[in-house]
Design brief:
4-stranded antiparallel sheet; mainly beta
Length: 128
């Protein structure tokens, strides 16, 4: 089992930046694809934000965050990060870290249904 804990959320003004971190425990994630998803206010479904392969060599972003967000990982520290720049009010959401054994190409892992482990989320609020 893998436990994931997110941190780094908070209140920021539009145009600002935040760095989200996800710490994994229980097992090494160095062979896991890792991703970030978010749940917008009032929405039931989680939407894809970004995913990174176990090696870090393959990365895929949602169109809505491309060019503004950067996903990265440090397998030695068992951590994954999401650097969020140029934040917009529409980025307000609960952000979740997720992981899975890399069974598919990472594009497929944009579906939340392909992820095995989830954190409890961290809230990001962007004011206008």
């Amino acid at each position: 089992q893998v436990q994931l804990v997110e941190s780094g959320g908070g209140l920021v003004q539009a145009g600002g930046s935040l760095l989200l971190s996800c710490v994994a425990s229980g097992r090494s994630i160095d062979r896991y694809v890792m991703g970030w998803f978010r749940q917008l206010p009032g929405r039931k479904q989680r939407e894809f934000v970004a995913v990174i392969s176990w090696s870090g060599s393959n990365i895929y972003y949602a169109d809505s965050v491309k060019g503004r967000f950067t996903i990265s990982r440090d397998n030695a520290k068992n951590q994954v990060y999401l650097q969020m720049n140029s934040l917009k009010p529409e980025d307000t959401a609960a952000y979740y870290c997720a992981g899975a054994e890399e069974r598919y190409t990472i594009v497929v892992h944009q579906s939340p249904n392909t992820m095995d482990y989830w954190g409890k989320g961290t809230l990001v609020t962007v004011s206008s």
